[in-house]
Specification:
The complex is a heterodimer of chains A (428) and B (903). With 428 residues, chain A is an alpha+beta fold. Chain A has helices spanning 29-42, 80-98, 103-108, 110-120, 131-137, 219-224, 247-253; strands at 7-12, 17-22, 52-55, 58-65, 68-74, 121-122, 125-126, 172-185, 191-205, 211-216, 238-241, 256-258, 263-272, 280-289, 293-302, 309-318, 324-330, 334-338, 343-352, 356-364, 381-388, 397-403, 411-425. Chain A has seven helices and 23 strands. Chain A has a nine-stranded mixed β-sheet, with no helix packed on it. In chain A, strands 2-1-5-4-3 form a five-stranded antiparallel β-sheet, sandwiched between helices. With 903 residues, chain B is α+β, with helices and mostly antiparallel strands. Classes of the chains: A alpha+beta (428), B alpha+beta (903).
Chain lengths: 428, 903
């Protein structure tokens, strides 16, 4: 049942080892490098390869970030979910340290990289990945103190994400409720899948060890408390909490209580699988006058209340890759041909509710086509937008109580925003 | 916080090592440190700097933590190549392990464990002992892992020095991180040891469950993974455990969620309350769905696991099929896995929507994905009878797009659909024939040829079509050649006119004289002989009805499935293989008892289709070849279309050729006894030999109770028996023991039987074909009927709660009802007693108006249960029998058995 990885590799885009840490002495870097180089050579697009590959007694698991591959090699039946997630966390930690994780930053900081790899994993078992706390005892400063540091209490504490003794002059909490709408509409105009993924993103600037309690208009909680659902209560399908939230307590009485980490983190995410009306509906009529030109007529309609306004709307309509000579007119916003995406990109800065805008575009097509025409890549229409001060779910933060033994008053700030997630409408 | 370490990589090439040596011995701290950094940089880019060993080790005694870490790193890398010099470091290590700074103590013990040099290991023991009891939890958690390191190097030393006991004590440590690492270390040590070292008692269980709430996310995974091995004592304990684990489903870390799911599924096996089980299923669905919003690599692992979970508990995600619809930007490996799960979850309710999706995917650009989507449509057609027609019309639409690989794939799956629903959809053949010229892949060609041969009488120009293929016969791959041979024979038998006659001669000639493929040659010879001796028999063989195929090709064997579920989230669950299949390090753990059932540990990820199911179907003609051919045939299984005959014939042919070695000789006499048996071979057809026989169950074993009666005028001896492939793979477990029979004498014997020897696929059938021969007479063939009740095993009894739960967990589609007009229940008690004797166990009864309802359970090998409801009026013939089972296709056989038992 148990299992650990044997080594962790940081590889460049061609699969050559930049830095590696051998945890168990039972895999060879040369072999791993050879295998992985072959793998990415064979596959034009490394993303198409499954992230778990077996070769000659060794399992390689990898992820890619910018021009760096992070890969583990294992000879045991290790926990694949845990290791792959760990690799993503390693990326987060490196990003925290070096701003961006790429080949250059790894070279520039290889000493710290070794130190971090030693601290984050031991004998192939993930140990500790809280960047903020790690940076308390593994520092990059050129002139670090000669006086030896101690491991922060947090490394082994039950509260492993926050150090003691944090002090702020002004105690503040910012809470952003961000909802992403995912929608998939098929070519018949039917919504075949829609859901909302929400996140409560927090930025805390609080002194000491504050105890926080968050109240939402959660139907289960309100009903349990016997409060008739005056106002709007909502059902959340699946809630996931940051490790600071006491899960057993939530399971018992739906109270969300926690000691927050310092700085920004996602307190919770949730999912709603109820049918969502597409907030922005897009229709595209494509007329192909064979082998000469193609005409597009795109209609966009906002289907939310007039008092809300969508901002930074971006509608991407695919066009054939060999289209040329665009001729574009819009009734609002600006549209341009983006050949690198094989798409027409229509941007509308401000799109109030209950409005409809149009965009017409005409492209020339080459008169000669290849004999064996491979099917065109059928990309969907994709839409991006943001609607501030609005949530699809109707979620509301009823209160955020902050209690610290020094008794300070803290100010919570709450914002709501809805944005497009994977918002795809398939073309006819 | 960007650094400038890259400068250390650019040292002067010339005289590099001596230069570094000098710098390492510099009296200036900064210069020394820079030199060590240069050494590490050189090591990082793969240069050999081992010759600087002494100089680097000399820098070890420093107050500077960063420098110390670098030297330690160097040691880990080069100690092995300089074992004698590594000793130099020991003193500093030992000293550091007593440093006032816990970071240094931990660093020392962590690094020493990584230096895999025997001489050092001995010196590690004392510091380790101290560090395991250190005041600082950071040191203890590092020491805990170090015990596992030491065990890996020298297990004996660990046991001798009592480290295991100390490690076990750490399970009760007050620090959750220490507990988690101790659990990880113990679990690993247990994996490498045959002795029970880390046994989870109910006491440790509750300790660990408490620690679960407080340790880091990674620690939670260690604990959950270790605890999933724990077997609860009873349903109540299981429920308690589950209750404490379910909050983990809300954790943001996907690995924690998956490990919690694993543990819940393990405990659910024990929970009897159907309400609790249903509730848990409901609770697990949303977290599983949410895993699909994670990073694609995690999604991939989640999907491989969901595949297993759906096989075990289809209800959990029955209504969530939409979340598996592919997104445009999903990586291809995610799309492939989603497709697989979509097929599993497809039902009559959602098939229209699913087909629209498949159609959409079939027009994408990735060829593998498109092919899989087309294949998926075919598999849905085979799985869902009522949707078959819609599936076919989608396939036809796709064929019209005329994308070459889509057309070929569609033809392959349509052949399977024809196999599944014979004589139903041949109206589309004309459309298929339009694409004939574009076929260039062997499998597609072979499929098309099979279709032409199979429906030769309805295709006006079948002969022309086949002829066009025949021109290139010698160049075709074996798969196509075999198909062409069979199809031509079919055509000839259906249209015995001049054209086909010439064709058949050309083909037979080609296939016998000009080929060196034994499969092809042997098959051609058999056809040739059949056609020349008895064309009618040839018809019976070649044009016989074929067994129907089903889409179970992707389902895992239940015992493998259970093992994989116990390994959720691990590589084993990603590969769908048991850990032993890929873990390379030798393990001394107890071997699994049922190893031999899946020696190759499951299928590769994407290679499956109904046609594979059919591949395994009896390919009689091939099998009928000489035994010399058998291994070749096994390596290169004939495609389903090569199954032109019902099962019995091949053995007949094999026997005729006298080449079948598996006929067992008869040597020892046995005594006849017992009641009369059904006559299977009357003496009128057996030239005086009468054979009566029946399958019976005695003492938990299946026997073939067979009696021979010699009514001829000669002594018969040398009896041998053979069974053809059958649904249950029944075969003789030993030789048939019958003495030489004098005229007028008879002999009866109990032949022990074994199951799953030569299993025929296709729909279950009660047909058991037997061949018996002796030294005086020709081979006799006769048919027997397999009575399922001989398979009812002794441990089929089910507790009431278990019965209810199982009943509810099985989908309604698995319930089959039949009236048994000839059955009668004369007395409830007597019937129960009688049924119990036949291993059909009583669960409960109730009365409803004048009717009595009896609930019973029974089980057949491989753990397939049957849950039975009998409704009858006492004393009046006619019993209504409802049965629910994971294998509803066995229901007809089951009803036959029940009718026999209730007569």
């Amino acid at each position: 049942m148990a299992g650990a990885v044997s080594a962790l590799f940081l590889l460049d885009i061609k699969g050559r080892v930049l830095v590696w840490r051998d945890y168990r002495g039972d895999v060879s870097a040369v072999q791993a490098e050879r295998f992985f180089t072959k793998l990415i050579e064979k596959e034009a697009d490394p993303e198409s390869h499954s992230p778990v590959v077996y070769d000659n007694g060794v399992t390689y698991m990898f992820i890619q970030h910018n021009n760096v591959f992070l890969m583990t090699a294992a000879r045991q039946n290790c926990n694949a979910a845990s290791i792959l997630l760990f690799l993503h966390r390693v990326v987060d930690v490196f990003k925290h340290y070096f701003e961006e994780l790429e080949e250059e930053s790894l070279r520039d900081n290889f000493v710290v990289v070794y130190e971090l790899l030693d601290e984050m994993m031991d004998f192939g078992y993930p140990q500790y990945t809280e960047a903020k706390i790690l940076s308390e005892f593994i520092k990059t400063d050129a002139y670090r103190m000669e006086v030896t540091q101690r491991p922060p209490m947090a490394v082994t504490n039950a509260v492993s994400w926050r150090s003691e003794g944090i002090r702020y002059k002004k105690n503040e909490v910012f809470l952003d409720v961000v909802e992403s709408v995912n929608i998939l509409v098929n070519s018949n105009g039917q919504i075949i899948r829609s859901d909302v993924v929400g996140a409560l993103k927090m930025r805390t600037y609080l002194s000491g060890m504050p105890e926080c309690k968050l109240g939402l208009n959660d139907r289960v909680l309100l009903e349990a408390q016997g409060r008739a659902t005056k106002g709007k209560a909502i059902d959340l399908d699946d809630i996931k909490f940051h490790q600071c939230v006491r899960l057993a307590r939530f399971e018992n009485d739906r109270t969300i209580s926690f000691i927050p980490p310092d700085g920004s983190f996602d307190l919770m995410t949730y999912r709603l699988s109820t049918q969502v009306k597409p907030l922005i509906w897009v229709e595209a009529q494509v007329e192909k006058h064979s082998r000469s030109r193609i005409e597009l007529m795109v209609k966009a309609r906002s289907q939310f209340k007039e008092r809300s306004t969508a901002t930074n709307v971006e509608i991407e309509v695919p066009v054939p890759s060999d289209a040329t000579h665009p001729n574009i007119r819009t009734s609002m916003g600006s549209a341009a041909y983006a050949p690198e995406h094989d798409a027409l990109v229509w941007k509308i800065k401000s799109f109030p509710g209950g409005k409809e805008y149009m965009c017409r575009a005409e492209f020339s097509l080459p008169s000669i086509t290849a004999e064996e025409a491979t099917p065109e890549k059928k990309a969907p229409i994709r839409v991006k937008f943001e609607i501030p001060y609005f949530t699809v779910s109707g979620i509301q933060v009823r209160y955020l109580k902050i209690i610290e033994k020094s008794g300070y008053q803290a100010l919570p700030w709450v914002r709501y925003i809805t944005m497009a997630g994977e918002y795809e409408l398939r073309l006819i | 916080m960007s650094g400038h370490d890259s400068k250390y990589f650019s040292t002067t090439k010339k005289g590099e090592i001596p230069e570094l040596k000098e710098e390492l011995n510099s009296q200036y701290k900064d210069k020394k440190k820079d030199a060590v950094k240069k050494v590490i940089a050189a090591m990082t880019v793969g240069k050999d700097v081992s010759s600087l060993f002494t100089d680097v080790v000399n820098c070890m005694q420093t107050e500077n933590l960063e420098l110390k870490k670098l030297v330690y790193l160097y040691l880990i890398n080069y100690a092995k190549s300089q074992p004698d010099l590594a000793i130099l470091a020991v003193n500093t290590f030992v000293k550091d392990s007593q440093d006032p700074n816990p970071l240094i103590r931990a660093l020392a013990v962590r690094t020493m464990g990584c230096i895999r040099v025997d001489k050092i290991t001995e010196y590690l023991c004392d510091p380790l002992q101290r560090c395991l009891k250190d005041d600082d939890p950071y040191v203890r958690k590092t020491a805990a892992i170090c015990v596992a390191k030491l065990y890996d190097i020298n297990a004996e030393l660990v046991e001798d020095r009592g480290f295991l006991e100390t490690l076990k004590d750490l399970i009760s440590d007050n620090n959750p991180m220490v507990v988690a690492n101790a659990v990880a270390a113990l679990a690993e040590i247990q994996d490498n040891s045959a002795r029970p070292i880390f046994e989870i008692t109910s006491h440790t269980l509750s300790k660990l469950l408490t620690a679960l709430n407080e340790c880091t996310e990674w620690g939670q995974v260690f604990i959950l993974d270790a605890l999933s091995r724990y077997k609860a004592a009873d349903a109540r304990e299981a429920e308690n455990i589950v209750e404490r684990v379910t909050p983990r489903l809300q954790h943001a870390n996907c690995a924690v969620v998956l490990s919690a799911v694993k543990m819940i599924l393990q405990q659910m096996e024990l929970i009897t309350s159907t309400d609790v089980v249903r509730n848990l299923c409901k609770k697990m669905a949303p977290p599983l769905v949410t895993l699909l919003s994670a990073e694609p690599e995690i999604q991939y692992v989640a999907l491989r696991n969901i595949n297993l979970i759906v096989q075990k508990r289809p209800t959990i995600l029955a209504h969530e099929i939409k979340v598996f619809f592919c997104k445009y930007n999903d990586p291809i490996y995610v799309k492939m896995e989603k497709l697989e799960i979509m097929i599993m979850l497809a039902s009559d309710r959602n098939i229209d929507q699913v087909l629209l999706e498949f159609k959409e995917y079939a027009t994408e650009v990735d060829v593998d994905f498109v092919r899989k989507a087309v294949r998926a449509i075919g598999r849905c057609a085979i799985k869902l009878e009522r949707a078959a027609e819609r599936c076919i019309s989608v396939l036809l639409e796709l064929i019209k797009i005329k994308v070459n690989y889509v057309v070929q794939e569609a033809i392959i799956v349509i052949k399977d659909i024809f196999r599944r629903y014979p004589n139903t959809y041949e109206s589309i053949i004309a459309t298929l024939c339009e694409s004939l010229d574009t076929l260039d892949e062997p499998e597609a060609k072979a499929s098309m040829i099979w279709i032409i041969g199979e429906y030769a009488e309805r295709i006006d120009n079948a002969d022309e079509l086949l002829e066009s293929f025949l021109e290139s016969f010698p160049e075709e791959p074996a798969l196509v050649q075999l198909q062409l041979l069979t199809a031509t024979v079919k055509l000839f038998l259906k249209k015995p006119t001049e054209g086909p006659q010439q064709m058949i001669q050309a083909v037979l000639n080609n296939a016998t004289v000009e080929t060196d493929n034994p499969d092809l040659r042997d098959r051609a010879y058999i056809y040739w002989r059949l056609l020349s001796t008895d064309p009618e028999a040839a018809k019976d063989v070649v044009l016989a009805e074929k067994p129907v195929i089903s889409d179970d090709s992707n389902l895992l064997d239940p015992s493998l499935l259970d093992e994989l579920l116990a390994n959720i989230a691990t590589l084993s669950s990603v590969y769908h293989k048991p850990p032993e299949a890929f873990v390379s390090r030798a393990r001394t753990a107890a071997p699994r008892p049922d190893d031999e059932e899946y020696p190759d540990g499951g299928e590769t990820a994407y290679s499956e289709s109904p046609s594979h199911a059919a591949d395994a179907a009896p390919a009689p003609v091939t099998a009928a070849g000489t035994s010399a051919v058998t291994h070749a045939a096994a390596k290169q299984p004939a495609p389903p279309a090569t199954v032109p005959a019902a099962a019995p014939v091949p053995d007949l042919l094999g026997d005729l050729m006298g080449l079948d070695n598996s006929i067992v000789p008869v040597d020892q006499p046995t005594t006849p006894s017992g009641p009369p048996l059904p006559v299977l071979l009357p003496s009128s057809t057996g030239q005086g030999l009468q054979i009566t026989a029946q399958l019976v169950r005695r003492d938990g074993q299946i026997f073939y109770n067979i009696q021979f009666e010699n009514n001829s005028q000669i002594v018969l001896d040398g009896f041998m028996i053979q069974f053809n492939k059958n649904t249950f793979g029944l075969a003789a477990a030993g030789p048939l023991q019958v003495p030489p029979l004098q005229p007028g004498a008879s002999a009866r014997t109990l032949l022990p039987m074994i199951l799953f020897q030569n299993v025929s696929t296709g729909p279950p059938s009660s047909l058991l074909q037997v061949a018996v021969k002796n030294n005086q007479q020709p081979v006799w063939y006769f048919n027997d009927k397999i009575s399922l009740h001989a398979f009812f095993v002794e441990d089929g009894r089910m507790e009431r709660a278990n019965f209810l739960e199982t009943w509810k967990n099985l989908p309604d589609a698995n319930e089959v009802t039949k009236d048994l007009p000839n059955a009668v229940i004369n007395s409830v008690d007597a019937t129960i007693e009688h049924l119990t004797a036949s291993n059909v166990f009583f669960v409960a009864k109730r009365r409803n108006a004048s009717k009595d309802l009896l609930y019973l359970s029974t089980k057949i090998p491989r753990g397939i249960p049957f849950l039975i409801e009998l409704t009858a009026t006492v004393g009046i013939p006619g019993v209504k029998c409802a049965v629910k089972t994971p294998s509803p296709e066995l229901a007809p056989l089951f009803f036959e058995a029940m009718e026999t038992l209730l007569k």
